[in-house]
Amino acid sequence: QAAPLCPYPSSSQKALMMELKSLQEQPVEGFRITLVEEADLYNWEVAIFGPPNTLYEGGYFKAHIKFPVDYPYSPPTFRFLTKMWHPNIYENGDVCISILHPPVDDPQSGELPSERWNPTQNVRTILLSVISLLNEPNTFSPANVDASVMFRKWRDSKGKDKEYAEIIRKQVISTAAEAERDGVKVPTTLAEYCVQTRVPSQDSSSDLLYDDLYDDDMEEEDEDEDESDMESDDSGNEDS
Question: Which residues form the active site (predicted)?
C-alpha cells in the first residue's frame, strides 16, 4: 500500500498564493515584493525602502524570503542580499529576529516562546518586524557584535559618535545604482513612503500561480451577473 502523500506542499502553496495576492492588492508600506522565479512560490524577493527620518532614508535594500514546505507551521528565513551593517544581521545577510525562530522553549536564548514564530504570523508581520528591527536593534543578543557596540556608542552619545551613522549612510548611498538599474524611484518623504499602490495584474508575476485558484469562482460570478442582467432587462421590457 502506497504511503499517503504529505499534505504540506498543497496547503503551503495555497497559503502563499493567498498571501502574495493580499500583499499585491494591499501592499505593506516601504516594500516591493516579487517572486524570484514565476513557478516557485517558496522563494520571494523583497525590496525594502529605507523609512524617511531614519538613518536608512533613501535606501533600497534587497532580500530573499525562503519558505519551508510546511509553512506556516515553520518560519521562513529572511536574508539580505544587500550588504547590511546592523547588530541583528549576520555577515551573510541572515536576519536574527525572534519572530523567525521556531517556537521551542529555550531559556538560554532570553526569548519567550510567545515572541517566536507561530502559524498566525505571516509575511506582513515579518516585513513590519524587519523594518522595526532596522530602526530599533536588539543589542542583547547581537548577530554582529561590532555593529552592536558601535550602535550603542552612537545611541548613548545621542549621535555625537558618528561612526555607526556614517557606515549606514554610505551603504544607503551605494544602493542608489541598483535602484536605478531596477527602474525604481525610492521614496524619500513620508508622503511618498506611505502611498500604497495596487500592483497592476498584468504586471504581476504571480497571476499565473493563483489564476487557476480563482478562475472557476470568477466564471461562476460572471454567469450569475449575466443571468441577473437578463432578468433585469426582461423586467424592464415588461414595464414598458
Answer: 96
d(CA 236, CA 217): 28
- CATH level 2 (architecture), domain 11-190: Roll (3.10)
Report percent pLDDT > 70 for the chain: 72
Question: Tens digits of per-residue pLDDT, 35-71?
Answer: 999 889 999 999 999 988 899 999 999 999 999 998 9
Per the residue annotation, which of 84, 96, 130, 168 is the catalytic one? Answer: 96
Q: What is the rounded radius of gyration, in angstroms, for the C-alpha atoms of the chain?
A: 23
Contact yes or no for 38/209 (Cβ under 8 A): yes
C-alpha cell at 201: 495584474
**In the chain, where the domains are located:** 11-190
Q: Is 96 part of the annotated catalytic residue set? A: yes
